[in-house]
């Protein structure tokens, strides 16, 4: 019995796999060791994951998560999972989850465009080049968090069209003071910022919005993709932002001569295939 979990900053998807079959499937809030201590992660798992997950004997846990890039951060997740399940745990980054799901054991350029963003060159076994994403303050170009940040900044500086700003304030029942509180004083500001990417998606026919999204994606290509050998390999994308803004993503990619391959919302089905196929190969 295997437990596979994939966590972005917003949500965590969990599946229990027996042989090649998924027998349990659930979602909880996102788990990120950069923003949560071990106790908070353990509490979230215990309280939000259905009891059925704790009643099975698990032989191996594979956890992929945002913020799981260093050994120190991986250990926070690992110790939390061992405490809950008493099973061996392998913790890897959400970026490795994306490329394992997208490429399997093939070579290519893999990207995440979700709450945050990331990119890498994957040789079919491991990530051999990674332009640091730097997070939503210094980087994360192309992400939902940065898209939301750009939009809210424009609203509060009176750069965004007033009708859009007014509709946003009314829809979310929020004020500029509330926004400052959420961004600078509340936990998970990146989740909060990414929420507004959904509002923008509903207004893609507005020239201001389409231009804002295009500029966000251009920044992602300029500051990330162009640093790889992108002309010789397919570029695959994972994440809700990539999926929902696929038309604009293709348009911007064409500006840079980048050929896009797959665009998937979630890596979980690919991860299940990867780990079950690995069993058969072994």
* Percent in strands: 15-25%
Give the oligomer, counting copies of the same chain as homo and different chains as hetero: single chain
Query: What global shape is seen?
Result: globular
Strand elements, count: 10
Please list the strands of the largest sheet in the order they lie side by side. Answer: 3-2-1-4-5
- CATH top level label of the domain at 2-97 and 268-281: Alpha Beta
Give the terminus-to-terminus CA distance: 16 Å
Structural class: alpha/beta
Reported for the largest beta sheet, the result is:
5 strands, mixed
Overall pLDDT confidence: 91
The rounded Rg comes to 19 Å
Q: Do you know the CATH architecture of the domain at 2-97 and 268-281?
A: 2-Layer Sandwich
Low-confidence stretches: none
Number of helices: 12
- Write the H/E string, N to C: EEEHEHEHEEEHHHHHHEHHEH
Give me the CATH superfamily of the domain at 2-97 and 268-281. Answer: ATPase, nucleotide binding domain
CATH topology of the domain at 2-97 and 268-281: Nucleotidyltransferase, domain 5
Helix content: 40-55%
